[in-house]
Amino acid sequence: MGRLPKMRTTVGGAAMLLLAYLLAAYFLIPEVWIHHDAGRIAEFGPMVTTTEQDIPGDPINVGLVGSKEEVLHAFASAGWDPADKITLRTSAEIGLSVVLDRPDLDAPVSPLLFEGRKQDLAFEKAVGKSADERHHVRFWETRSTGADKRPLWLGSASFDRGVGFSHDTGQITHHIAPDVDAERDLVIGDLQTAGQLSSTYEIPGIGATKTGRNGGGDPYFTDGKALIGVLHGPATP
Questions:
Q1: Model confidence over 141-176: pLDDT tens digits?
Q2: pTM of the predicted structure, to 2 decimals
Q3: Number of helices (H) and strands (E), helices first, in the chain?
């Protein structure tokens, strides 16, 4: 009978530690970083995403001109998969993908905010056997349009190099590789190779930096430009 109270004590202690971790990582520490990083949002201007805790996230570094249907078709043609929305089921699936080293081609991506709202579309390209590593990009449809009056989508492309704990908050997250320009160029390059773009042009992004840091505390560097691809429009009769 003496072992049962010990087991209850151990389980209770573990539960308390888990609760303390969740409270610190997901509620208390993010509040500290909100105040710490408030000035960095103004420093980068509008061309940066934020986390749901209003911490500066990944920079806006890519864009497309075209309808939603054209964007979906372009990525399908280029071999990229649309990312699932975050649900209990998809969260469990991506966790099992990483732990068991098995594929999850449409694994969800965490929400980031741009112009006050979550991404409208997200795509990924698998690397290796699981969702531990992947190329991915989020897109937001903006109020702006291209020269042909089709919608302008602005996005943030980065490479997930592995799952771990946020350097800032301790939350479980994907860590990104520092060269975000390489991911921007990969997205546009894959669409070009697939014959989906009629032209490209650059617009100012966050500005050049060698000391960027996203919402998970991962460092990044960039030339600070966003590369825009113009998708082929509807065929004219």
A1: 999 999 999 999 999 999 987 765 554 555 556 689
A2: 0.74
A3: 5, 14
